[in-house]
Model the fold of this input.
Amino acid sequence: MLLFTIRRLGVMLLTALALTFVVFYMTNLPPNLEKLAKSEASVRMSDEDVALWLDRNGFSSSVLTRYGEWLGVMPGWTRTAEDGTVTGRCITKGVAPTDAPARCGVLQGNWGYSTVFKQPVIEILSRGLGHTGWLMLSVMLVMVPSALIIGVLSGMKEGSRLDRVLSAFSIASTATPEYVSGVILVALLASATAGISPFLVESGLISGKTLFQGTATSAMDDITFWNFTLPVMTIALYGIGYIARMTRASMTEVMTQQYIRTARLKGASFPTIVLRHALRNALIAPFTVIMLQFPWLLNGVVIVETLFNYKGFGWTLVQAAGNNDIQLLLACSVVAVLVVLITQLISDIGYVLLNPRIRLA
Done:
């Protein structure tokens, strides 16, 4: 297991370097750099002025050199003006050039400066990840247990009425996009003129105008049941159906295995057969799907965060891509790559824990 983990960590490191270099190369294409120069200096800059601006700001060197500087494995660039003023990647205001560090990249904790938000990238990224982290945690706490219960119950009673009802719910929830289910939930539960809120107000069952809040902006400061339920349910409904269908298919296959029949012939009760024999093997396939939900939740909640005005990681990624904020976009890409690789490592280790026979293979 230790050798397997070390080998996987090595592959993860190489994969992270390759993917981050591809993103760095794509974001540092000449059209993007020209757009950056004109947005930072002047829209009416000539080609000569653009080239001069790029040279003064360290963009004239090769892509590999700039990638090494951004990563922090190569010394940062420096420029000396005609008046003797020294500027550079690692030189900041109030710090003498001789006191500035030689390297100041991602490995040193310097993620750059956002050209849109005019703040250090690490501050913006930490704030967005914090908001999305609470959303991801809430969604997983709702989605995973609900999906596993639905899938197990459906797989235990294959072909029954309960199975047909649960399967229909799973298919319907998966087939409904988040932007559709979100709008429906807002109309039903967070509208003062439609849904059930007017009826509840007239009946005196609620004191406000709506049962739930149609926006999650206030949840960025103080999460409550009323301002966080709708975005959580919007995301969870989409994922519940997919995980439940995978769990049902796996549970149905496991229940037909020979060792399940042997357990029945030995007189084991049905709950014991399900919990001690079938469930562990049936969770191998759903476990992979569950682990894949983390990268999806990190990058795929853009619509939900926009719909409910919740400024998390997805919202930050859209702002960075739409405004050509190269440093912020690179930071978001690094986080996304790391989340995918880490979840894949946990998934591989989970395989061995759930089924030791995989270790022999």
Observations:
- The first strand starts at residue 78 and ends at 80.
